[in-house]
Design goal:
This protein is an alpha/beta fold. The chain has 9 helices and 17 strands.
Length: 371
């Protein structure tokens, strides 16, 4: 009989213990036992750990954590991904401070380029070499060309992934539409691309809600793990639900197991779902998975979403004031003015055409940097 230890890794979602304290009662024993017995527990460190107050200019909040002790130990977190839309919130000082803190607690990391260098992570699961890659969407995640989060870039990612020698390849993406439990068309397309070039599993976070899963060419894509530890006083119930993904290798096959849990509101306590709560979650998760595969339901969801969000996106494009945005929301936008319609057409061309988008990106970036 083999005495080889049963090994697995666990991947959880967004980790941002904003109150800085991990309480002693952090969940039911069975859930914590899963984390403690994992060879590696990976989370997305959602923000830099720094004392710096020098923020990087961006749209959206600049967030950070303070070094208040080993906040990772309780959950056996020993590896973090850093490719996300907040890691650069406090500039190069924030990144360097984060790396220093992680090194102090012997936490390995990936998903960031510092002085132009980066790395991916190799894990060993019962003698199988597993490569972990981490990329994010390009959302205020760079300081300069040499110091930045590793981004979703099909050309660069292709070279990195295909030249890597390993038994299995796993991609962890930080991307998708926030607060939507349905993956958008872009994230589905890029996730499938990673499978096409040889990856065995794709996982996503960033949406702050659990999304469905689909199989593609015999491989699994999980579009949203939800939050792991992200205290918040007031939020929808979906904010407090998440899944940890247990990954193991049986008979040369990579297998996964979904472990649903809930955060206790505005705390660092997580509890495995049980009984009625688990039944409700499983029913909802199956519905989300089925909806991804059902073209009619999927298209209907996004048609409704576009109608819901068109005010926010168009008002932003047309630089509406708060008053104009309110009128737009109440009465609807009528593109009767030719110059307004033309402005939207020009903007669409600049963001849709690849060459125009390249120039447009650089022009806007340099304008912000006063170059």
């Amino acid at each position: 009989m083999s005495t080889k230890k049963y090994e697995y890794i666990v991947v959880s979602g967004d980790f941002f213990p904003s109150n800085g304290v991990i309480t002693e009662n952090n969940g039911n024993n069975e859930l914590l036992k899963i984390y403690k017995n994992a060879k590696t527990h990976i989370v997305n460190l959602e923000a830099p750990i720094t004392k710096s107050n020098k923020t990087n200019f961006k749209v959206g909040p600049n967030i950070k954590l303070l070094d208040s002790g080993n906040i990772f130990e309780t959950f056996n977190i020993n590896h973090v991904t850093l490719a996300n839309n907040h890691i650069c919130d406090y500039g190069i000082e924030g990144i360097k401070d984060t790396i220093s803190v992680l090194s102090k607690y012997e936490i390995t990391y990936q998903g960031i380029e510092v002085n132009g260098t980066s790395n991916y992570k190799f894990l060993d699961i019962n003698g199988h070499k597993v490569a972990i890659f981490n990329f994010c969407e390009f959302e205020f995640c760079e300081i300069d060309d040499a110091n930045r989060a590793k981004t979703i870039d099909p050309c660069c990612n292709y070279k990195e992934i295909t030249e890597c020698e390993s038994d299995f390849k796993v991609v962890i993406l930080h991307g998708g539409t926030e607060h939507s439990d349905m993956p958008n068309k872009w994230i589905r397309k890029i996730a499938k691309y990673y499978i096409d070039i040889g990856c065995d599993l794709v996982l996503c976070h960033h949406t702050h809600t659990v999304c469905g899963m689909e199989e593609y060419r015999g491989k699994e894509i999980y579009y949203g793990l939800g939050n792991f530890i992200f205290p918040k006083k007031k939020a929808n119930n979906t904010w407090y639900l998440g899944i940890s993904l247990q990954i193991k290798i049986d008979d040369e096959v990579l297998n996964t197991k979904v472990i649903p849990f809930k955060q206790v509101n505005n705390s660092t306590t997580v509890l495995a779902l049980e009984g009625k709560d688990l039944d409700i979650f499983n029913k909802r998760f199956r519905f989300l998975c089925d909806s991804i595969k059902n073209d009619h339901q999927y298209e209907k969801y996004w048609e409704n979403y576009y109608k819901l969000e068109h005010v926010n996106y168009l008002s932003s494009a047309l630089n509406h004031s708060r008053l104009e945005r309110g009128i737009f929301r109440k009465l609807g936008l009528r593109l009767k003015k030719f110059n307004e319609k033309l402005a939207i057409a020009r903007l669409l061309n600049n963001v849709r055409c690849q060459s125009h988008r390249t120039i447009f990106n650089e022009v806007l970036k340099r304008r912000l940097e006063h170059k």
